[in-house]
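Late entry, evening session. Most of the bench is empty. Finally got around to the prediction I had been postponing all week. Sequence below, unchanged from the version circulated by S.P.
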Amino acid sequence: MVRASGPLPRRHARRANAPTPDERLMTTLGRAAPQDMPPVSGIGIETALEAMAPASKLAIAADLDCWLDWCAHEHRRALPADPEDLVRYLRILEADGKKPATLSRRIASLATVHRILDLGGELPPTSAPMVRNALRAQRRRKGAAQRQAAPLRFGGALGGAGGFTISALLEACSSDVQGVRDAALLSLGYDAGLRVSELTAIEIKDLRPQGDGTGLLHLPRSKTDQEGLGAWAWLSADTMRRIAVWRSESGISEGVLFRRVGVDRRRERAKEIADARWGETDEAGASLLVTYTVGSEPLTRQGVTGIYRRIALGAARAGLVDLPAGELDTAIKTLSTHSLRVGLTQDLFAAGEDGAGIALTLRWSSPSTALRYGRQLQVQSGVAARVLSRVRS
């Protein structure tokens, strides 16, 4: 039984007009540095920050904030961390229901902080045996399996997928400006199996139309390519057509491809003469003038998740998906920015492709990562299934 003493630290949410990742991390490091800390090499800190991805800097800053808040409440010295304090901290996180992956990341962030500030010597306190044992014990109690994003498989011509599918969501997209953007976003994200950071960073210059109507997408950088070697992804002719419609409707000729679309619906005044733009009506039957404004900034991670879930709800209301009664809300909540990537991975496994080829195509860090997302489908097409299905049908 794990018991907690003291409040659980919370990761700080980012606010509007937030500082850059470098500023955010440097501010938190300044707050954490002990007053009696010896001088630290400025070049050393500069190069450490240059080697990190922006998302990593923000994650480390947020994790360090949580640790500092707990230490302040418990009146403990934050840095260098005491191994016993780290164990107590982990127990509080576990008691609040945090997963093993979260605890491991929090400790990894504190290890990085000790290295940046040159604290703890050759063996930082995060590597102390009692800390490693605390992490192992928590994994034994809770299990190390991570929650997997709900897959958005293609369905339709590929078949074999129940619930929400890319085919159903594409059919649910409207024909207005917002709808054609959403359809292009879904179609491209699935074809290329993109992470949300890759999807929201796509620029017009990254697209390479091919003579047969298909396309290539250049990815200058990704999570597993921090050195910027670049990668390429294939896009179907259907996706390229949807992108062309979105560009035509939005007027985007350069810069980021997927942007926020503002929608303004204004009720018709009594003496106003309706024109071709008047067409929608509200619940009272009054005509509405709908204006769409395409922004200049890329979509955010939260914005992409909201788009997926909004279209999924529309597909359900239109009767395009078959879900058991009472499961709609849960099914929508499990959709995330990773759902298209997981869905394509599972579709490729279902088609008989091997883990190494899938990992290479989708830029997974290793075949084992791809196998984790296709584990159930891999079992269905594995050695036992192939052999025994012939004699035990």
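Two things to note before I forget:
The chain has three domains: 21-142, 156-258+299-338, 260-297.
Residues 142 and 193 are 30 Å apart (CA to CA).
Will write this up properly tomorrow.
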